[in-house]
Specification:
Length: 146
């Protein structure tokens, strides 16, 4: 791994139970690949759904966004800042994500102008796309009001 969970925590403000990245395996100027093991012990499975545990789609999108945030917040000018959602578009869920799955999360930066950027993201399990989306984000300071 290029970055482990502890190193990710120096970049992102997220912590358990909402840090949805275990590692970053690839990071280039405009692309990042991260990983998240979907543990059967995740608290969300107690209620979604007890009879058929499925990782909620919103958490898959959040995991993609967190991988993208590592890419953007690793830049020297953004250290110590936070990336906020501005918009989520073109979301598509193709398959269920269940306990024991390993999510591979990727985001390709499409545009970054000042504090606003857009990225195209995907989540895969065993090489198969399970979700995709386009994210717009704003980089700001902690506690800043929009």
């Amino acid at each position: 791994m290029l970055l482990d969970r502890q190193q990710i925590e120096t970049i992102l403000p997220h912590r358990d139970p909402f840090l949805l990245l275990d590692g970053i395996s690839r990071m280039e100027e405009t692309e990042v690949t991260g990983h998240f093991y979907v543990s059967p012990d995740l608290d969300v499975f107690r209620g979604h759904f007890p009879q058929e545990p499925v990782l909620p789609g919103v958490l898959i999108v959040e995991a993609i966004a967190q991988a993208g945030a590592v890419l953007v917040l690793s830049r020297p000018e953004n250290r110590g800042r936070i990336a906020y959602f501005g918009r989520i578009d073109k979301v598509r869920f193709r398959k269920k994500v269940t306990p024991g799955d390993e999510l591979e999360l990727s985001l390709r930066l499409l545009r970054l102008r000042g504090p606003v950027g857009t990225g195209a993201g995907e989540a895969r399990v065993n090489g198969e796309v399970v979700a995709s989306c386009e994210l717009t984000f704003v980089v700001g300071d902690a506690g800043e009001q929009s």
